[in-house]
Known about the structure:
By secondary structure, chain A is an all-alpha fold. Chain A has helices at about 5-40, 45-55, 70-105, 115-130, 140-160, 165-190, 195-205, 215-230, 235-240, 245-250, 255-275, 280-295, 300-325, 330-350, and strands at about 60-65, 65-70. Chain B has a six-stranded mixed β-sheet with strand order 6-7-8-3-9-10, sandwiched between helices.
Amino acid sequence: MPSGESQIESIFRRNNKRKAVVISASVLILFITILVAISIGNVSMSLGEVIDVLFFGRTYVDGANGQINAHNVVFNLRLPRVLCAAFIGAALAIAGAAMQGLFRNPMASPSVIGISNGAAFGACVSMVLGFSLVSGAFAIPAMSFVFAFITLFLVYFMARTKLGVPVTMLLLSGIAIGAFFSGLVSLLQYIAPEQQLGGVVFWLMGSIASCGWNELKIIILPIIIGSMILIILSRDLNLLSLGDDQAKNLGVNVERTRIMILCATALVVAGAVSVSGVIGFVGLIVPHIFRMLLGPDHRLLLPASLAGGAIFLVIIDTISRMIVTGGLPVGIITALLGAPFFLYILRTRKKEVWG
Amino acid sequence: MKLSVSSVSFSYGDGMAVDGVSFDAENGEVIGIIGQNGCGKTTLLKCVNSLLRPVSGTVMIDEKDVLSMPRREIARNIGAVSQSTTIVFPYNVLDMVMMGRYPAKASFEAYNDNDLNIVQRSMAETGVEEFADRAIDELSGGERQRVLIARALAQEPNILLLDEPTLHLDINHQFDLMELVKKLAAERNMMIIVVTHDIVLAARFCDRLIMMERGKIVTSGRTEDVLTSENLARVFGIDARISYDERINGLNVFIVGKAGGDPKADRETGKGNGTDGRGTAARNEDE
């Protein structure tokens, strides 16, 4: 401890420094993960070649059968897909972290208050019934956004009581409305014509195989805006996570802040779900892992989950590409790999985070 | 700084939990709100900082209606420590106390050295500096309570509301805590309102008392005027002797037992009917 500085001051500065280190480290790891992910595939490249192609305008690399147009492989195939995976993973993880804090519940994730199911229903309506508010490339995402917000407001309205909107009511009405939408999705699957059913089922499994620049364009803004709102509100989220009364005592406008956090969450989740379908587990386990490693402070947890979710899904998607050409739906792998990994972490960490 | 509560009523749906309560309070005072379980003490406290919105009546701080203030402004005026605080997220103690600086900051403003100084002083005052780097869930009930009070002090409020602050504390820490309350009122010139059903502590540490029953104020005023054998028999159904004790330079309460029959008769004969609990039983059914 430096002289002239009290113990409390040094703890305060150390914690701030730690936050900066963790966030820069996770961004760095994300960057490296993306480079590695790009280098892996049918045509494998070295990291140096990837960097040359990405940043220094190199076009051709030496393949097994002569020169290969690496520029095309990197920019038209792998980069958009890897970036989509990163954005989707980031969105799901930060949304999960925010939901767990807001609901003070370890089981909370974007799907638990029905937002994912609502968004999925919107997308299915567009796919099966061919109905959407807009036509063309934005038909499916537009419907997922609309239904994500319809679900959110339905849930909020249903949870309202004379004394405000209690967290338990929100959670329970979310579960009920989510179940309702998931029933509607099954109904749509049941009535869907044969040639569309495959597409719907594949989409529901959660896949980023079809993601390219167009999909990235659709999701990038809502995810960036929503995540920024969540990170800006992370200090408020800390107070909300203490419970409504304590948050009010400390000066938080609880209702307004909560609706802002819910809207930002709906924005990022709808963004992710609209192009990738429902990818389970990322929103649940990534925040848990980081909370176990870093503690509950959302000012650190949200950015870390953002980067961590991106890293996680990029790795999973890369594995899926290595198993099957084109890629196994990542939703399958997140569940098959994610669940045991999560259980391992849960059993080996001594400190209980959830009393 | 003056707090005036006038004709405040609140209902959870059936019957009035708080029914036309009025009182005034000023800086430097320790005010106790006492009464049996379910008499509306906590509800009244929640109306004061508008955690609950009264169905009628007003709460004014220096002529300004609390209901018209944004939450941040209320929190700059009133610090509050609630009764039960379940901990879901084990924040570390320093972060927890720093949350008390939230109402002083604009939305994007970071905590700075000034905030750190205030936090440090609050922690010193409640004696929790040594826990700064510990997780809140590792602390005992009493230590936790002091951290929450430090957090309320970090808000630099003029008014401090404490709901059953001594509830989970052992007798030793109960006295420490009430000494702290007394000190804050004297040194920081704060107004401190304490909800408690500990009559002994209320007698010793409160300047004024408000005695409640079924949502209404039965009596209020200086502690020695409110704490009488009659009132205690009537509201709590206990037979107690109140006397000035020079050893503690304050009021001492000796509880004889449960009151029975006519409290006045008991007092005259100087003998409590401790075995007959019928008066109390009837009262409990009413609640």
